[in-house]
UniProtKB/TrEMBL annotation:
<keyword id="KW-1133">Transmembrane helix</keyword>
<dbReference type="InterPro" id="IPR000719">
    <property type="entry name" value="Prot_kinase_dom"/>
</dbReference>
<feature type="region of interest" description="Disordered">
    <location>
        <begin position="371"/>
        <end position="390"/>
    </location>
</feature>
<feature type="transmembrane region" description="Helical">
    <location>
        <begin position="296"/>
        <end position="317"/>
    </location>
</feature>
<keyword id="KW-0325">Glycoprotein</keyword>
<keyword id="KW-0677">Repeat</keyword>
<keyword id="KW-0812">Transmembrane</keyword>
<dbReference type="InterPro" id="IPR011009">
    <property type="entry name" value="Kinase-like_dom_sf"/>
</dbReference>
<feature type="domain" description="Protein kinase">
    <location>
        <begin position="414"/>
        <end position="693"/>
    </location>
</feature>
<keyword id="KW-0472">Membrane</keyword>
<dbReference type="GO" id="GO:0016020">
    <property type="term" value="C:membrane"/>
</dbReference>
<dbReference type="GO" id="GO:0005524">
    <property type="term" value="F:ATP binding"/>
</dbReference>
<keyword id="KW-0732">Signal</keyword>
<dbReference type="GO" id="GO:0004672">
    <property type="term" value="F:protein kinase activity"/>
</dbReference>
<dbReference type="InterPro" id="IPR013210">
    <property type="entry name" value="LRR_N_plant-typ"/>
</dbReference>
<dbReference type="Pfam" id="PF13855">
    <property type="entry name" value="LRR_8"/>
</dbReference>
<protein>
    <recommendedName>
        <fullName>Protein kinase domain-containing protein</fullName>
    </recommendedName>
</protein>
């Protein structure tokens, strides 16, 4: 009996152990098969380290770009890996996948019918996808964010949105879609962001009129007919480059100075639009011709005058009501206290955020920014000219409006104990608000500004507040009252890159970290130069303007602020001139010439930054001998000499990577610092070159190629853990001790 009992318990234990090992160690077999199929159809790319066509366990073996929860694959991020091929036909087997980001690759072919059924985020932007949107999209009932922009999708869009009641943001921009909008657009009752610009859509936009949109871009299409009155409630609206009929404009039409009639209000093209046909038809009643006496004529003239007067009064009332609503909604009407909560621009968890290139467009060249005439009396205008300027710029912007009183309280009246640093635009203070949030306040000391200069300041705020990139410090708010001009940024516990490189108190950054910092900054510049519309130059790039956070991810500061320098006070300009002595090494040869494309100067400054990372030297160091003070002049002749090139390398990273990698890095540097600006490559090419370099480093590490390998710690590859759907950067182990710092002081 005892033997039977012991045998039974042994069997139970062994069986339980087997089941437990299967539960803990193995990814769902159907999901493994789906990834194997994807890997095969992507032509077995070396970038997908760990992937196999047979066998393997994605969760247990940490396949590149794959994140799991227990035995389920929940994230698939293969962004920017230069992948080719197509997406296969087994993605629907990824039943637990929540987020799929395969953007910025070279994938071709159609979007497969088989998509992850429970996905909340799908990003296939910037590929070579063709054909149309599959009908199976309507089955993704949990989908919240969809980005198919910058592909070669074409043809009329079918009724594929009927089941997407949870969809919040959708980007179909920069494709070749044609025809009218399908009626299923009207079923997207939770859609707040829609981007359809740069397609060939025709017909009416009435199906969009009932949606709770906050961002709508339909620019550069062939839409026609009337502009729905509901569009007046959309805070961020771009619709230039279409064929809307001037006679059908609603009473809230924009001021003519912001909407060129010849570009945005023209006769619609001839089209058999079902959307237009759904509109009520304006009937014309024809009666029999009768003679009419003088009394009848007088009655008609008088009646016509009365009707015209009523129409004018009605139109005036509607316009004033609209303006009042707009200003009240913006928090900029007469009762405004200029105090807004200190909150993030949008409340969303990392899992709910998706990067959309078009989501970042500030305004159309035709419409924006829209400015409604202010509604306040002349007495208000006389008492506070600066406040009226702020109100006049009343089109809602993403930056929050703070009061001086709020900022004084949060910074202890801008006390020395809260001072983080001083730079070329003014002082930066740490601000702690009652709700526990911590911000960095840049106090820009300006001269007394004219009305036009006030507008220029607000335009800068408008532009910078819409920058959205993981390697750019976001602008949260601003203050412009009582002659004060302040910008409020996220506070980052960080260390400036120049301190991490040039001060002995910090541990030397590894070669892998330096490469990753370089590509992070390069991606930020490429975003400013290529994605932002209109393009934006940084114009003050330097290592002091790059903050490394606790995970050593780079964050670029002061984007778009260089235009404010001429408006600063003399005291600030003197301080700026002192700082500029140390920044001499970043200045491109063409600096000061009229009509120069500042983006080319950014590329030169980035090349200097690469030299800084390679050599550990300052761009300009007057403590050195005269011929070695300027880093570019000293290094240029050494970049293509093998012996001199090796001697240039920072002693802290010497012999940690192969000469082949060093030589390729030197090639990138040499192109960026070309004295003739036309010979410098665009930042997009620089980004691709650095990505290829990182791939070669990873290949050397994995294959054990000849030549030294980087030291201990995680490498520079993009395969490391990334929980944020928006983030495009690798996380690193902490290297230097971080100091409390924030927005650049320089």
């Amino acid at each position: 009996m005892r033997k039977q009992s012991a045998s039974m318990w042994s069997t139970v234990i062994v069986f339980s152990a087997i089941m437990a090992s299967q539960t803990l160690a193995f990814t769902n077999p159907s999901e493994v098969t789906a990834l194997q199929d994807l890997y095969w159809n992507l032509n077995l790319p070396s970038e997908l380290r760990g992937w196999r066509t047979e066998g393997g366990d994605p969760c247990d073996e940490s396949w590149a770009g794959v994140s799991c929860y227990e035995s389920s694959i929940i994230y698939l991020k293969l962004r920017g890996l230069n992948l080719t091929g197509f997406l296969g036909h087994q993605l629907s087997s990824l039943c637990n996948l929540k987020q799929m980001d395969i953007s910025f690759n070279k994938i071709w072919g159609p979007i497969p019918d088989e998509l992850p059924p429970n996905a909340t985020h799908i990003n296939l932007a910037r590929n070579n996808l063709t054909y149309n949107i599959p009908n199976s999209l309507s089955n993704l009932k949990y989908l919240r964010h969809l980005n198919l922009s910058h592909n070669f999708l074409s043809g009329p869009v079918g009724n594929v949105f009927t089941g997407l009641s949870n969809l919040r943001e959708m980007d179909l921009s920069f494709n070749n879609f044609t025809g009218d909008l399908p009626s299923s657009f009207g079923s997207l009752k939770n859609l707040t962001g829609l981007y359809l610009q740069n397609n060939k859509f025709t017909g009416s936009v009435t199906y969009l009129s009932g949606l709770p949109l906050l961002d709508l871009n339909i620019g550069n299409n062939y839409f026609s007919g009337i502009i729905p009155d509901h569009f007046s409630t959309i805070p961020n609206l771009w619709m230039g480059g279409n064929n809307f009929h001037s006679g059908d404009s609603p009473p809230w039409h924009f001021p003519l100075e912001t909407v060129p009639i010849e570009q945005n209000i023209s006769r619609p093209p001839t089209t058999e639009s079902s959307a237009i046909e759904s509109y009520p038809i304006v009937e014309t009643f024809i009666t029999k011709k009768k003679s009419m006496g003088p009394g009848g004529i007088a009655f008609i003239v008088g009646g016509g005058t009365l009707v015209a007067s009523c129409i004018v009064i009605y139109m005036s009332i509607r316009i004033n009501q609209y303006r009042a609503r707009r200003l009240q909604r913006s928090g900029l009407n007469n009762n405004t206290t200029h105090s807004l909560p200190v909150t993030a621009v949008r409340d969303s968890s990392p899992a709910e955020v998706e990067e959309s290139p078009q989501m970042l467009t500030f305004r159309s060249p035709i419409l924006g920014p829209r400015r409604m005439p202010p509604i306040y009396n002349s007495r208000t205008q006389k008492t506070s000219k600066r406040k009226s300027v702020t109100r006049k710029h009343g089109f809602p912007m993403r930056a929050k409006l703070f009061t001086i009183a709020d900022l004084q309280s949060a910074t202890n009246s801008f006390s020395e104990t809260n001072l983080l640093g001083e730079g070329s635009l003014g002082s930066v203070y740490k601000a702690e608000f009652p709700d526990g949030q911590v911000m960095a306040v840049k106090n820009i000391n300006m001269v007394t500004l004219t009305f036009k200069e006030e507008e220029q300041f607000l335009d800068v705020v408008w532009t910078v507040s819409r920058l959205k990139h993981p390697n750019i410090v976001p602008l949260i708010g601003y203050c412009a009252e009582h002659g004060q001009h302040l910008l409020i940024y996220n506070y980052i516990r960080s260390v400036p890159l120049d301190e991490a490189l040039h001060y002995s108190g910090y541990k030397s950054l590894s070669w892998g970290l330096r490469l990753q910092i370089a590509i992070g900054v390069a991606q930020a510049l490429d975003y400013l130069h290529s994605t932002v519309s209109p393009p934006l130059a940084h114009s003050n790039l330097k290592s002091a303007n790059i903050l490394l956070d606790e995970e050593l991810m780079p964050h670029v500061c002061d984007c778009g602020l260089a235009i404010l320098r001429p408006l600063t006070s003399n005291r600030v300009k003197i301080k700026a001139s002192e700082i500029a002595i140390g920044d001499t090494g970043y200045v491109a040869p063409e600096h000061g010439q009229p009509g120069v494309d500042s983006r080319k100067s950014d590329i030169y400054a980035f090349g200097v930054l690469l030299l800084e990372l390679l050599t550990g030297r300052k761009p300009f160091d007057n403590s050195r001998q005269r011929e070695e003070q300027c880093l570019v002049k000293w290094a240029s002749s050494r970049l293509h000499d093998s012996e001199s090139l090796e001697q240039m390398v920072d002693p802290g990273i010497k012999r940690t990577f192969s000469f082949r990698i060093l030589s390729r890095f030197a090639d990138v540097v040499s192109l960026c610092i070309q004295p003739v600006k036309e010979f410098r490559p665009p930042m997009s090419e620089v980004v691709e070159s650095l990505k290829c370099l990182i791939e070669k480093v990873n290949m050397e590490q994995s294959s054990g190629a000849d030549g030294p390998r980087p030291g201990p710690g995680p490498g520079p590859g993009p395969e490391m853990d990334e929980k944020s759907f928006l983030s495009t950067n690798t996380r690193f182990l902490l290297s230097p001790d971080l100091t409390n710092s924030s927005v650049d002081e320089g």
